[in-house]
Every structure is written in structure tokens, then in C-alpha cells.
Design a protein that fits this description.
Blueprint (H helix, E strand, L loop, with lengths): L2 H14 L9 H7 L7 H8 L7 E5 L5 H6 L6 E6 L2 H14 L3 E5 L13 E6 L10 H11 E12 L32 E3 L15 E3 L4 H10 L2 E9 L17 E8 L5
Parallel strand pairs: 1-2, 1-4, 2-3, 4-5
Antiparallel strand pairs: 5-9, 6-7, 8-9
Length: about 270
């Protein structure tokens, strides 16, 4: 299933139609605010790591806003990888404007070149990133390959449970009965949507996004198969990007996971 090319086209279309005020004054905010584009859970997780003089990578980095923010924690340099060429071009412009030591590579994450083998102390994924990959073992194998021995993989994302819940705007959503689930936790068929980039654009894409559900077990097993071992898993009943309809109602809605590549730390 060659969904990468169609997702690339969908993301580039969405970015071309982003609302005028989305990430407005990004360069100015990065220079005048502390960790401006990190949600509180991600900020806390990054601050528990010693990133001083370290090399960072963000896979599926969008326009680089989170990577740029993480660089404030003292990292030496960062590299952002994403499939959308226009997002990478915008990120390069922000790097030039701010002087933040980041570069950006366009392409399929699964095809990151050998020049990045063992290059990073930290590789991180943020909201909604791993859902774009059907094969998590292949994805995490690339992350492990790019990490230095003793390096850390960080995932801050929607909890797999959230794929069971209908969200506002869907026919199955009932604001009077937010204790009901609508979809299987073990769904295997892909999600086909045209509004996955709604957070940055009011435009409904003419091109289709293809994404995949993963259980927490499949995430952890794929990490283990890639030679990474989990050192921390925190789960939260707060949503980090879709809607607040289920906040505080007892569902796990988001999580932060840390895993380490075996070997001596740099």
C-alpha cells in the first residue's frame, strides 16, 4: 500500500491552505518566549532529560515549531524530518530568521539516510505522528538506527484509547453520553479522512489522509523488537489536540513514553 505519496500530497495541500494566523509570528515567539510550542506534558518530559550540548531529531516535525522550542533546553543542534516539502521550506526560513541551529530534511522517515546512523542523543515524536505509519517496527528500527548508544526515544501522543471515541463533529458523537465508545481498540483497517489537518486550516482537503490505529501493546512490542527498552510511561486523562469533551472523565487520552537504546551513553 503506497500511502506515503498520497499523504505527502495531502499534507502539502493542507499547509498551502493553512489559516493566516496559524503559527503567526513564529520566529518572534521563539526568540521571546520559553518553550512556546510545547504542550505541558511534552515540556516536562523534555526537561527531565539533559539536553545540554546534545543532538536532537524530530521525526514528522511539521514546520519545526516543537523542535525549535526544544532547542531552548541547551541542545547543540537539531534535525527535523518530514514528508512535506513546503513545511520543510518554511522551517528552513524560520531557522535562517532566528539563527537556531536546526536543519530540515524532506522525505519518507523510513528512508532516512545512513549518514544519520548513530547521530542523535534524542529522537522524538509528537502528537499524531506515529499514526501515519502502518509498520511500527520499521519506524522504530529507523529511530533506533539514528540514536547513539544510550540515546532516548520520546513519544508524546494521543493515547490509543482515543481512537475508540467519537469526536465532536462525527455522527456517533453524543455530548449527553460521553461514556460511550464507538470504535474497536483493535481496529486494523486504515482511517481515510480529508480533515486530519483541521488544527491548522479550515480547508477540507481534496486529497485523502491515510492513518492507522495502534494499541499500546503494539507500540511497546515494536519498541522492544527495535532494541529499545521502555524506561517510563505516563498516561493522562487530558486530550492534547482533538477536543476537550472527554477530559477528566476517566479515559486515558494522552501519554508520554521514554525508551532507551541499549549501550553506553555518550
Amino acid at each position: 500500500m503506497d500511502y506515503f505519496r498520497s499523504n505527502q500530497a495531502a499534507w502539502e495541500e493542507a499547509f498551502d491552505h493553512r489559516t493566516e494566523n496559524w503559527c503567526e509570528n513564529m520566529g518572534e515567539r521563539l526568540q521571546n518566549e520559553t518553550l512556546p510550542y510545547l504542550n505541558p506534558m511534552l515540556a516536562i518530559a523534555l526537561q527531565t532529560l539533559d539536553l545540554r550540548d546534545k543532538m536532537l531529531a524530530q521525526f514528522c516535525c511539521n514546520n519545526g515549531r516543537e523542535l525549535f522550542s526544544a532547542m531552548q533546553l541547551g541542545a547543540r543542534a537539531g534535525v527535523g524530518f518530514d514528508i512535506a516539502a513546503n513545511m520543510m521550506e518554511a522551517a528552513r526560513g524560520i531557522a535562517a530568521q532566528t539563527g537556531i541551529a536546526c536543519k530540515f530534511e524532506t522525505g519518507n522517515i523510513l528512508e532516512i539516510g545512513a549518514e544519520y546512523n548513530g547521530a542523535f542523543n534524542l529522537v522524538f515524536f509528537t502528537i499524531g505522528a506515529i499514526t501515519w505509519f502502518q509498520d511500527l517496527e520499521a519506524l522504530f528500527a529507523v529511530a533506533a538506527r539514528c540514536l547513539k548508544p544510550g540515546g532516548t526515544l520520546l513519544i508524546n501522543d494521543f493515547h490509543p484509547m482515543i481512537n475508540m471515541l467519537p469526536i465532536p463533529g462525527e455522527d456517533a458523537f453524543d455530548p449527553e453520553h460521553t461514556d460511550r465508545v464507538a470504535y474497536s481498540y483493535f481496529r486494523t483497517e486504515p482511517w481515510l479522512e480529508n480533515d486530519s489537518a483541521g488544527y491548522m486550516t479550515g480547508h477540507r482537503n481534496s486529497r485523502t489522509f491515510t492513518s492507522f490505529s495502534h494499541t499500546m501493546g503494539s507500540i511497546i512490542n515494536a519498541l522492544a523488537a527495535s532494541g529499545l527498552y521502555v524506561t517510563s510511561l505516563e498516561e493522562y486523562d487530558r486530550d492534547i489536540g482533538i477536543a476537550d469533551a472527554y477530559n477528566g472523565k476517566g479515559f486515558p487520552l494522552s501519554f508520554t513514553l521514554l525508551a532507551v537504546k541499549r549501550g553506553l551513553t555518550e
